[in-house]
What we know:
Chain A is of the alpha/beta class. Chain A has six helices and six strands. By secondary structure, chain B is α/β, with parallel strands linked by helices. Chain B has 22 helices and 14 strands. Chain A binds chain B through residues 116-117, 174, 177-178, 181-182, 184-186, 188-189, 194-198, and chain B through 268, 270, 307, 310-311, 313-314, 316, 399-402, 405, 520-527.
Amino acid sequence: MTTQQTKKNCEVIITGFGGQGIVLAGRILGMAAALGDHKESTLVQSYGPESRGGACCAQVIISADVIQYPYVTIADVLVCMSQSAYQKYKEQLAQDGILIIDQDLVQTDGKRECFAIPATRMAEELGRKMMANIIILGFTTAVSQLISRKAAEEAVQSSVPKGTESMNIKAFTKGYEYGLSKLKGREKKAEGKSGAVA
Amino acid sequence: MQEIKIILYLCNWGPHVAFQTLQDQDYLIPPEVKMVRIPCTGRISKALLFKAFEMGADGVALVGCQTGTCRYGRGTDNAAANTEDTRGILDLLGLGKERLRFAAFLPEDVEALKTFLFQFRDDLRRMTASPIRPGGATAAAPRPGKALAAILAEHHVSACQDCGKCTSACPLALSGKPYSPRGIVNSIITGKLATEAVIKEIWSCLTCGICFQRCPSQVDFPAFIRDLRAHVAGHDNGRGPAHGGFFQSLMRAMTAGGLQPQRWLDLPQDIEVNPHSKTLFFGGCAPYFDVFFRRHQTVKTAAVLTDSLRLLNFFDVKPALLSAEKCCGHDLLWSGDEANFLRLARLNTEMIRALGITEVITACPECYQTMAHDYAAHGIETGFNVKHIYEFLEHEIDKNAVAFKPFAGRLTYQDACRLNRSEHMRAFPRKLLQRLRPEGFSEMKESQNAALCCGNSAWTGCDAYSKALQVKRIRQAKETGSNLLLTSCPKCQIHLRCAMEDPFRGDELRMEMKDLTSVIAETICWE
Ligand code: SF4
Ligand code: SF4
Ligand code: SF4
């Protein structure tokens, strides 16, 4: 895993449709790193020509040092919330990078391992499809350890519309716990304990 | 030394001759031995064997004729099997199987009978006295000080509008039994409680709660019946409880404080428990049921307990276990023995509190209902939270990245009456069912708050009508086209299996049954 612990720089691409809150997720990620974890961070956002429903992308760099160039060429973490975004960006993920997907929206080519979460479905169950971005952000926080949970939660609190803070924290926690459980499940499987019955 | 008491059930035929010869020859029979002369050992049921222990015996000997010399054919074999099953129960109970022996003698085996009796007496002398003592402590006692007027008031019985909705929904009435909850309410309000017919009806109710669901006046008929049973305790339906009252005896025996049941001795190696945990897993009486029914039915209800423990371990919960766990008291509460219910409730509560437990998890619907609600309703403050395993599982599965292996089977589900009392609890098994990946799932014609009872509750009032009801229920299950009937309660497994194994019906009613918890344990996996 390439995370901030082994490399000074960590470059992230979060991508999906317009309207999914991709840029907000990127901004929260950057803010958490800068304000909560006291690192440097940059955010570059790009919309396709079709800003509603078309591919949308947030590029975030988190670094211990000053960042000279804010565009991501090779990503350490790629978060995909739509199939077309996945197709467009999959080649930009580093060999040992982390791929994170919404499993109901993205079908991978199966060439590499990924961390999958039904974020949009979970958001619907929580009552707001809009919060899928926050769920996947919580998930990303847990599996990539790019930012601390505390910093992430503070950034969520200060970035979402007033009155929706507690709902968004709930969504974040949902994704975060799911991420921790993914890691735990991988460990258990590695120990040969995949089910409950021996 | 405290005098020990030995009950000798002695068959009239072969061994009695030997016994008489001993007396004629002026041999001193050990004075501890109280002989009960019986026509055949094969008719001494498990209930009668156990009853002696409930009444304070330190040892019981069942002595009959040798195989092949039984006057009635199979008596000896029956007796040996009943003894074996009851010995299994004595072991679980922590009383020790050595206290019950079966032996067979020919009329001329005088010396051998003498040796057997002295040997048994000497062996029992070396053991400590049985902690189960008879009398006030264990006998069924009527509800302390609760008058009929108070019972009527507590359950708003006079709010009855005489609409008959209860009777028209009651599964017993629908299976043809001349029985009517409305009729009972009316008779009692008009002062006819003491009639034989009414008392009979009081003991027939399944306490399933459908009538309560339907009643526009919110008359909680099952709770009313529960209190009436305590009120009329001692008068039964003329048939006595099911299985000769074995289970009530067993549960009353458990009120003996000094008894140390050996509940968890044969726990599989792979299960991890932690005696210091603040979460306790409460098992319930399934292991006793399995021993009791081992020759009649193929039920393995104790598997639910090991599967529950495996699921707790799967989610990294290593619970404490109560080695001297007693029955939760459900069956005594619902069969009119409130005094002993209270004793069990206090014993369990004290033991659990002494471990510093904050949460009790159980897989048994009856233990859940009893410990979560009835303890407090009867003035016993537990100080711990009680959770059914379904609630635990739903929460964990929702939160964690787990999946289910596809499951070959078309499912239907038998609701447990004790989980069906609240909407909240009724929903959990269905949520879990939806997470499984079976070939198919379909509800039976009557389900959820209209679900039909498995045919018995608290080992009371089993008769031909409850059998008819079970047949109807199993047919409903088959009509769904499913090949696997899922259950939540060990008793549903036992009572429905009993109907399925009715020899007069052959294979007509047979259907595979499994517990929902076990199916979850078999199929759950990390994603
Ligand atoms: S349903 Fe209720 S109100 Fe109607 S007859 Fe029965 S007990 Fe009385
Ligand atoms: S509790 Fe069930 S069996 Fe008893 S009267 Fe009501 S519906 Fe009938
Ligand atoms: S249904 Fe069968 S197992 Fe249940 S109480 Fe009646 S006889 Fe016993």
